[in-house]
Amino acid sequence: MSSLAGNAFVVSLAFADLVVAFYPYPLVLVAIFKNGWVLGDIHCKVSGFVMGLSVIGSIFNITGIAINRYCYICHSFVYDKVFSTWNTIFYVCLIWVLTVLATVPNFFVGSLEYDPRIYSCTFVQTVSMSYTITLVVIHFIVPITVVTFCYLRIWILVIQVRRKVKSETNPRMKPSDFRNFLTMFVVFVIFAFCWAPLNLIGLAVAINPKKVAPKIPEWLFVLSYFMAYFNSCLNAVIYGLLNQNFRKEYKRILVSLWTPRLFFQELSRGGTECPKSKPSPALNNNEHMRIDTV
């Protein structure tokens, strides 16, 4: 169950990262080539809305992953009940409902506009001071606080357990399980690093738009904006660098694209063969680590 629940949030995060590649980013390329927005107001609003869904959906899914890992390690006795199959589906749906609710007000405050500095229709920080502050708090400060708490508790428990089993022949935490946890932790750290500049600028501008906005250098805003949206491209790289299973799949996909005949052979073989071993859980073995710290 732990693997299923953890994978559900990862798939949801991947969807949030991919959605911008199919609609907003191609329109940004058109604006760059045309040196301006030529696709009309409707495409502008929808593009900005979809980009907002991707951004807020990403951080909400990262928060969901952190809570899932925290419950799995620190409260393993109740984990299977809290993250049952139907509960997990409900949590993922709830994440996207909250994402939509956080993004829809853009239409009412008129904050989705074309910004020539970044060639895209996006959230304009100076339109509504109250909405900008609310969005920064909901989209960045609160999730970062929750995720930081979860990972700090996990790290504390991991250190305690590793010290206890240091002299044991068979360690209770598999190296692969620890790498999986480390992967998600790095995803969070890089997300915070990429999004912090843009959110801090937005918060400063919202508090005092007339004085602060003119003082923000254009290059700093553009750099912070592209740092933030470049984050969507980094998660797949992180998975490939830190997770052996992802690296194997990447290699298999690349080889299959280069030689399509092998791809169809893999499909036919995968349909007739049964899995030989049970995959390990996303982070830790629930049988070996039944520790409740609260």
From TrEMBL:
<feature type="transmembrane region" description="Helical">
    <location>
        <begin position="180"/>
        <end position="207"/>
    </location>
</feature>
<feature type="domain" description="G-protein coupled receptors family 1 profile">
    <location>
        <begin position="1"/>
        <end position="239"/>
    </location>
</feature>
<feature type="transmembrane region" description="Helical">
    <location>
        <begin position="129"/>
        <end position="159"/>
    </location>
</feature>
<dbReference type="InterPro" id="IPR017452">
    <property type="entry name" value="GPCR_Rhodpsn_7TM"/>
</dbReference>
<feature type="transmembrane region" description="Helical">
    <location>
        <begin position="219"/>
        <end position="242"/>
    </location>
</feature>
<protein>
    <recommendedName>
        <fullName>G-protein coupled receptors family 1 profile domain-containing protein</fullName>
    </recommendedName>
</protein>
<keyword id="KW-1003">Cell membrane</keyword>
<keyword id="KW-0675">Receptor</keyword>
<dbReference type="InterPro" id="IPR002278">
    <property type="entry name" value="Mel_1A/1B_rcpt"/>
</dbReference>
<dbReference type="Pfam" id="PF00001">
    <property type="entry name" value="7tm_1"/>
</dbReference>
<feature type="transmembrane region" description="Helical">
    <location>
        <begin position="88"/>
        <end position="109"/>
    </location>
</feature>
<feature type="transmembrane region" description="Helical">
    <location>
        <begin position="7"/>
        <end position="26"/>
    </location>
</feature>
<keyword id="KW-0807">Transducer</keyword>
<dbReference type="InterPro" id="IPR000276">
    <property type="entry name" value="GPCR_Rhodpsn"/>
</dbReference>
<keyword id="KW-0297">G-protein coupled receptor</keyword>
<keyword id="KW-0472">Membrane</keyword>
<feature type="transmembrane region" description="Helical">
    <location>
        <begin position="46"/>
        <end position="67"/>
    </location>
</feature>
<keyword id="KW-0812">Transmembrane</keyword>
<keyword id="KW-1133">Transmembrane helix</keyword>
<dbReference type="InterPro" id="IPR000025">
    <property type="entry name" value="Melatonin_rcpt"/>
</dbReference>
<comment type="similarity">
    <text>Belongs to the G-protein coupled receptor 1 family.</text>
</comment>
